[in-house]
Amino acid sequence: MKFNKITVALASLGMVLPLAAATPLAVTTASAAEKVEKPAKTVKFTLTKSSIYKKVKIVHTKDKVPVLYKAAIGADRPTFNIKAKGRLQAGHTYYVSRKVTAKSVKTGKVNSFSYVRNEGWVYSKYLTAGIFKQAD
Fold first, then answer.
1. How far, in Å, CA of 59 to CA of 15, rounded?
2. Which of 42, 55, 85, 124 has the fewest CB atoms lying closer than 10 Å?
3. Do 44 and 105 contact (CB within 8 A), yes or no?
4. What is the CA radius of gyration of the chain?
5. Could you say which DSSP state residue 125 is in?
6. Using one digit for the tens of pLDDT, what is the confidence trace for 36-93?
């Protein structure tokens, strides 16, 4: 069987092309594996004051996108441990049913947290009273 140069070139190209296409995919999967987020660290607080609202407070977020926290509140000790779990959306109206003031164990700073109903805990300084109204 006689092979001419074009047949040999096409056959070798057919064998090399799948390898060339697979190499960029392997590189992207390796870089995606490097970007895996580290588990969020838990921050410990000591409760100083807490309140539950009889009627929910209406608040909204502005341009900043506040971090949403999951909290573990101690039953027998006044502890408040938070761990980041996501973010709220900017420019939305939310309902707050609880508020907690807590002192950080590590830094000693006092912070206020509000419980956004059906979402989680948020630093109170990122919430504004009232319903969100789109600016013209």
1. 62
2. 55
3. yes
4. 27
5. G
6. 445 568 889 999 998 999 999 999 998 888 999 998 888 888 898 999 999 998 889 9
